[in-house]
Amino acid sequence: MKNFEVFLLLDFYGDMLTEKQRELAEMYYNEDMSLAEIAEHAKITRQGVRDAIKRAEETLLEMESKIGYAKRFRQVSEGLEKIIGHARTIQEQSRLGNFRVVEQSAVLIEDMAKELLK
Fold first, then answer.
1. Is residue 9 domain-shared with residue 62, that is, in the same domain?
2. Same domain, yes or no: 60 and 76
3. What is the pLDDT of residue 4?
């Protein structure tokens, strides 16, 4: 099953796969090739491609469950988006003189930054 999670995990842990698994998984996820196209290119059966990709997915998911880089990356990205939103609120509200809202947003930014540093 093609999904963004495995696509992202390939970026983080692709080097942990065998060369063949990485090559086939990249063709499937990054180049959006079908199993039949990959099989023809790699000169192996469609089932062989499917099995290699499934093993690669299992390895990637196992690495993520042990290391957690992709999860941490998503947390940091989401936190930064929230910080940017609060910074914009501060800019808008300071122009309007709503310093209570400015203070609240500043506190939220500080709390999010502390959380991201953990």
1. yes
2. no
3. 73
